[in-house]
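Objective 1b. Sequence-to-structure analysis of Reverse transcriptase domain.
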Amino acid sequence: MAKVARKLPHKASIHLTHIYNAILRLSNFPTQWKFSVIILFPKPNKPTGNPASYFPISLLPLVSKLLEKLILKRIYPIIVENNIIPNSQFGFREKHSTIHQIHRLADAISCSPENKQYTSAVFLDVSQAFYKVWHPGLLYKLKKILPPSFYLLLNSYLKEPFFAVSSGAEIYNISPILAGVSQGVVLSPTLYNIHTADQPIHPDTSVAEYADDKVIYSTHIDPLLTVSTSLQNHLDLFSLWYSQWRIKINETKSINTTLTLTGSKCKEIHQHRVYYTPLGNIISGLKINQTILVSHTSCGALDREGNCVGTTFTNPKGTWHKVIIQAKYSIQLAEEIATANNKENILILPSGSKLKLSDSYGLDQYKGEIVWQIEHQECSIREFDVLYDGEASLVKATTYNSNTESFIVETNHTAISLKKLSLSYACNIPVYKTDNPQLLIIADQNYADSFTPKQITPFSADLLSYLNTKFVYLEFTVKRTTTKLLIINTTI
């Protein structure tokens, strides 16, 4: 057909040009040109009796493909000028290829161990990506970026296409295409890229994609609280987006892997003197301030069964194919004293590194994996009297210009109220100030063991005097939640 088109006489070419100009002017795609014949190519190592074991390829009339090229040539500059397709998408774009995307991903993975960082990646596969594109959703996005004439033309292009499956010499019944953009069609890759161009992004992750294949990865020195949390937050955004635009992920082909030089469990090392190697071997009996040398076989990645399979890709400088490395581990367990700042929630290590105190776990770029336990030191307050330790109601009242929170200890039909004010610190212990200057409320129940109990019940006159015998009647309109209350009296 292509050879015939090139040898058309001059008058035939002129008539064909008039037809194309009329189509562009009227924004109407001819119905006969939207008929495609589907031929099936078997997928390797798949059962031939299952329809899902074949690649469907659409064959359109030659004049239809020429028209699609004309349309693409006119809309693509608009797409490029407005940066519609994200830079992370390398599929079906000029001067982009799968090799370029793999180099980009491999560079991030290769650099992270040098910086003592972890890289965790999620590989997503979209189920029947091209064939499940939701036409109303695609048209909604096209309308926002294209001039009306091109939008109406593509609306006509997507409206009521039909197909017939060809097998050998047989052509089966003609059926309508209700969704999707056919593979083997000129416009389909660009339309798919537009349909997925507004996928959500996350500040702590990166994305690498080629057409419908996507990798979300995060690199950081903290594998638990930063890398894993960032990936999960980004996946949550994707889950909502996929649901909104009727896209389904193939869970059996999607996988998560962490690429690092160590697979240890930090808390097990420090608390139980046990080291877990990446392949599941256990080294026990570690001792403080003694170095143990261990030779071990590690790999780039593990498959679903836990086998060491490495990472496969090719670049001009060499090949990584099922990388298995014989590594020597130097394991040293040490104990040090660090400075804790409760007020700013910072742990300052001897190396100068600063970690989040409340995490109780982190990575020091100089020392490695760190696990700590806070020890409270004596301070200038001689005594803490626990006036009340028990259940209370946290009552939140909101007016047009203020929000008030009070702890309520109920006594029969009345209640004793203690108004919660600003957050403060007593001996580096977080407490809430109250409207009684001598009474504080412990903000974190983990510090309760630091105080000396005093046998005072909420029904005693002693407690009522501390609370200034202030009574309030509870209303059902305020928001109440049951909380654990610890009221202390300070003596300086």
